[in-house]
C-alpha cells in the first residue's frame, strides 16, 4: 500500500475504463525483469495464468522474486520483457488509478498511519462507512480487540503501530485492504505474525471470498488455503500445481528429512 501511495502520476495514453475490470483474470506472458540493463535478472520468462476468482499461492525461497512479481501485477514496476494482462488486456494500457481501485493489498513493509483505527481501515475515506469498517475488521479477526480498546474504533494509532502486536497490526492492514471490496486481493506475507488460531480464522475467511486472490507465503497453513501453488526459484517458475499435489510433495520432503 505504501508503494502505491508514493507512485508518481501515471503517464497519459490509451486507458482502459473501469468496467473492463469485471474480468480479473491475470496473465503473465513471458515476464522478465531487471532493475537496470547491467544488473542480473530478477525474473526470467515467467508465464502464469490466474483465473478470475481463483486463489493462488506463490511460494519459494527468500530472494527468488516473489515480491517483485507481485509488484509487476500491481503495476508498481514495469516488466523488462513480456507483458502483464488483466482481463485479456495489457496492464500497460490501463488507467492505473481505476485498476488499483479494485485491488486490495497488504505488502510486507506496509505501515499504519497516525490516526484512529477507523481512519486507518477506511484509508481516510472522506465519507467513511462505519458498518463496512467493522465488517472488514471482523473478517480480519481484529474487531473484538478493537472493541476492547479504551476508545474502540476512535482509538489513535501511530505509524509504527505502537500498542499493537505484530499480529494485530497485520489484521488492521488486512481490514484496510478489504474496505473497498476489492475484486483482486494480493497478500504478501500478510499473516506472518499471526498466532496459529488467528491465522486459521483469517485464512478460512479469505478462502471463502469470491475474488481473485494471490497469496505470497512460506507457512504451510497459509499456502494451504490456495487452490493452486506456484513455486519460484531464482526468478523462474519451477512448478505450478494443485494444492493437493503440493501438499503431498511437502509431506514426502518432510518424511525424507
Automatic annotation (TrEMBL):
Keywords: ATP-binding, Cell membrane, Membrane, Nucleotide-binding, Transmembrane, Transmembrane helix, Transport. Its main location: membrane. CDD domains: ABCC_Protease_Secretion (cd03246). It comes from the Bacteria. It is found in: Cell membrane. It is a multi-pass membrane protein. It holds the Pfam family ABC_tran. One of its GO terms (cellular component) is plasma membrane. InterPro entries: AAA+_ATPase (IPR003593), ABC_transporter-like_ATP-bd (IPR003439), ABC_transporter-like_CS (IPR017871), P-loop_NTPase (IPR027417), Type_1_exporter (IPR039421). GO terms for molecular function: ATP binding; ATP hydrolysis activity; ATPase-coupled lipid transmembrane transporter activity. Residues 26-251 form the ABC transporter domain. This is ABC transporter domain-containing protein.
Amino acid at each position: 500500500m505504501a508503494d502505491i501511495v508514493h507512485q508518481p502520476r501515471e503517464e497519459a495514453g490509451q486507458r482502459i475504463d473501469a468496467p473492463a475490470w469485471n474480468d480479473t483474470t491475470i496473465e503473465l506472458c513471458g515476464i522478465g525483469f531487471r532493475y537496470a540493463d547491467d544488473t542480473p535478472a530478477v525474473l526470467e520468462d515467467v508465464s502464469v495464468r490466474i483465473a478470475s476468482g481463483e486463489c493462488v499461492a506463490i511460494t519459494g525461497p527468500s530472494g527468488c522474486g516473489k515480491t517483485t512479481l507481485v509488484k509487476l501485477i500491481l503495476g508498481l514496476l514495469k516488466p523488462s520483457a513480456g507483458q502483464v494482462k488483466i482481463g485479456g488486456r495489457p496492464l500497460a494500457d490501463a488507467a492505473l488509478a481505476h485498476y488499483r481501485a479494485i485491488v486490495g493489498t497488504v505488502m510486507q513493509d506496509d505501515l499504519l498511519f497516525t490516526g484512529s483505527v477507523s481512519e486507518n481501515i477506511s484509508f481516510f475515506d472522506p465519507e467513511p462507512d462505519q458498518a463496512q469498517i467493522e465488517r472488514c475488521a471482523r473478517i480480519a479477526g481484529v474487531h473484538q480487540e478493537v472493541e476492547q480498546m479504551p476508545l474502540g474504533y476512535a482509538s489513535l494509532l501511530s505509524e509504527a503501530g505502537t500498542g499493537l502486536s505484530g499480529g494485530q497490526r497485520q489484521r488492521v492492514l488486512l481490514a484496510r485492504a478489504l474496505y473497498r471490496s476489492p475484486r483482486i486481493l494480493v497478500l504478501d506475507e500478510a499473516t506472518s505474525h499471526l498466532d496459529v488460531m488467528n491465522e486459521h480464522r483469517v485464512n478460512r475467511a479469505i478462502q471463502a471470498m469470491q475474488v481473485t486472490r494471490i497469496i505470497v507465503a512460506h507457512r504451510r497453513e497459509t499456502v494451504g488455503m490456495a487452490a493452486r501453488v506456484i513455486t519460484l526459484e531464482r526468478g523462474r517458475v519451477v512448478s505450478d500445481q494443485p494444492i493437493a499435489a503440493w501438499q503431498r510433495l511437502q509431506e514426502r520432503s518432510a518424511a525424507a528429512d
